[in-house]
Each structure stands twice: as C-alpha cells, then as structure tokens.
Amino acid sequence: MTTPENSPGPNAETPTGVDIGAVLESVLQAVPEVVHEGDDHAVLGRVFQGVLFDMDGTLVDSTMAVNRSWRRWADEMNLGLRFAGVQHGRPGREMIADLVAPDQVESSFARVNELELADTSDITILPGAAELMNSLPEERRAIVTSCPSALCRIRLASAGFDAPATVVTVEDTAKGKPAPDPFLEAADRLGLDARQCVVIEDAPAGLAAGRAAGCATIGVVGTHSAAELDADLVVPSLDRLRIELHDHGVVFSITAEAS
Questions:
Q1: Is the pLDDT of residue 4 over 90?
Q2: pTM greater than 0.70
C-alpha cells in the first residue's frame, strides 16, 4: 500500500508534537507475552469444581534425577541405542515393556524404582506450583501421577512440597496415562464430575488422559515445548496462573508477567 504524498509517514509528528510512531511502539511493547488459548476458551473465566495436577514436570522438577536413574538402568541392561530416553508422562512399566522381554519387565521395573528412590538430588519445586496448590481448598485439589506411591511421596518430600490429601498413583488404576483412568479416579475420590475438573500437565500423554476423562486441560511448558502440548490453554509456567475461589468452584486467570 502506498502513502499519499501529503499524508504523514509512520514516524511523523502530529500538529500537537506527538510522535505517532513512538506511541505505537510503546503500546506494542506493553502488550503481555502471548499465552495460547483454545478457540473455545475452555479454561479462562469458567467455574471448575476441581483441579487435578500432574507431579513430575508440573509441580516439581525431577528431570535430572529421572534421567540419571533410567540411564543407569539402560546401561545395566546394555540397551544401547534402543533406549532413546524417558518418555515423560508414561507409566514406567509400559516404557520398560517396550524395551525388554516380557519375563524381564517386573524385575526391570523394580530396579528402576530402586534407582529412582535412591536418587533424590536436584528435585525442586517449580515456580508458582506450591502457591497454586495452596490456593485451593482440600476438597478441590488432587495430584495424579504415573509414579508409584513411595516414589511420589519421597520426591514431594525431597522438594519440600506439601502433598494434598488426595493423591492418585500408578498403583491405583488398572490403566495409566494416556488412558483416562487416573483422572477419573481422582475426580471420583474428590466426589466430583471429571467433566467439571481441569487437568494441569506438562506432557502429551497426561494431556491426552485428561481429555479422554472429559476434563479441560492446561499445558505447562518445560519438559515439552508449547508446540508439543495439545491443551485448551498453554502457559510458560504455573506462576502465570491465578485462582479465585467462588461459592460454586474456582476460576482461573492469567497474570501478565511471572511473579
């Protein structure tokens, strides 16, 4: 598009001396970082009955410890290039079954669990996680993890994260993520309809499980990039989220910047 000869350019000053280009630039710089939402805006402004949190990669950062334990097991099993790394969000027994003979699955699972229980270094609370969890009443919150119960508890304790009363682990359902069973179990324990709950996850398998359970979903960037997270809302970290309590549930909002 061309500019008429007598029209002011983008950086021209108005008769009052205001630089339009400078004003426009300052406005654009003030726009907060874009946060992806689903087209149906299924999260923001909606009243939810409960919030179901994944643990590893969502509430606590255990990535280094997880990777060390699995790498040691893979080396012990001489898996070489067959082991391409941990598939975060999937139950450990399922990952093992893809790599070893059927008669080695249970012993391998026990060994990985032993290694993970012994390695609790570098496990920390992720930004905003404790604050978000603590903003919820007990009857509206749960942790849903692919970890065994003992490992879940020791990781939370190592990070200094206070566990809610409702915690669903891989031992509590016949099928793990990406099946919906874990989130359905958590909603049931809370006495809630899963379709009125939101799942907060960092991994595609967990988000798939949440959708299959009928929950709305929030993806948290970290273990995976935003482009890999198919969720109703994707945030760079949990410190971008706020929760308001209402008589009939909780409502999410987003802050312009991390606290």
A1: no
A2: yes
